[in-house]
Amino acid sequence: MAVRFYYASGSPYAWRVWLALERKGIPYHRKILSFDAGDLKTAEYGALNPRRRAPVLVDDDFVLTESGAIVEYIEDRWPNGPALFASEPRKRAIQRRMVREADHYLADIGTRFATTPSEETGNNLRQELALWEGAATGDYLTGDLSAVDLTVYPLMALFERIASRRPDFARSDFIGPRLSAWIGRMHALPIVQHTWPPHWKEAALA
């Protein structure tokens, strides 16, 4: 199998790429990395990604890092099948903008609130999620299921998983009804169920 996908369970960035591969129906070999075992610190992995982060995609002899770039490569490399981005240039530009907004704002604010909660980070998160609530006007964030949904959902799922362990967290205080309905639709998708982080499944059974 020519495509190898280096994946770390629970990483929303690696999960995004896994979802994209499944959505496009591309055959691949998934190589699971363990943070605890030090897999990202090995010389072999360092040769693939000197930054020692996941994910990495290897297509024959071509190696690509950074999840956003990988998803765009998947769309360009395998144009057949369900599209990850719109064909119309302006709509595609908006989708790419939203992907970058998720990476630069939602990921940062969500992580700060989940790890070091405060009134300020809570208010920042409410403001950020209100913007995404405004975007959730249809079944998916930009109309059809796209790279935007595959980017935002893993971030939201990780945020909810971390925040739900806090006794002071009230989901409805942060996530509006439209965004909540979108989360439910995403969670029910077969590609999401199939790619649910393996160690999250184990934790659910514990």
Question: What's the topology here?
Answer:
Blueprint: E1 3-8, H1 12-24, E2 29-33, H2 43-48, E3 56-59, E4 62-65, H3 67-77, H4 89-115, H5 119-135, H6 147-163, H7 177-188, H8 190-195, H9 198-205
Parallel strand pairs: 1-2
Antiparallel strand pairs: 1-3, 3-4
Helix pairs in contact: 1-3, 1-6, 4-5, 4-6
Strand segment tally: 4
Helix content: 55-70%
Number of helices: 9
Assign the structural class, choosing from mainly alpha, mainly beta, alpha/beta, alpha+beta, or little secondary structure: alpha+beta
The biggest sheet, with number of strands, parallel, antiparallel or mixed sense and barrel status, is:
4 strands, mixed
Strand arrangement within the widest β-sheet reads: 2-1-3-4
Rg (C-alpha, Å): 17 Å
Describe this structure in words.
The protein is of the alpha+beta class. It has nine helices and four strands. The protein has helices at 12-24, 43-48, 67-77, 89-115, 119-135, 147-163, 177-188, 190-195, 198-205; strands at residues 3-8, 29-33, 56-59, 62-65. The longest helix is centred in the middle third of the chain and has 27 residues, at 89-115. The radius of gyration is 17 Å and the shape is globular.
